[in-house]
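note to self — DONT lose this again. spent like an hour looking for the file last time. sequence + predicted structure for the chain T wanted, 89 res
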Amino acid sequence: MKVGERSINMAYIFNYREGFTSQDDTLPEVFYHNFKGGPLYGQGAINKEDFQRAVRLCYKFMGWNLNTGIPNSAKLIELDLDWLVNEFK
């Protein structure tokens, strides 16, 4: 489990360094609209505000900054990734 958590945190630091921000943690616009045919016609849309709240909740559970989505220094140190702390300062 810790290896997986380390991997996710390293990926987020890498993505941040390459220019991605919390604004990129979203879905394509089509997911926020109901289906236009088939047995689920008129259903299926994901509520955008609920999705944003879920993203922030995920950040909280991961030990990341709620506004930026960047792993907190304490989380990186906990995962023995303290060598990444300077990547986002």
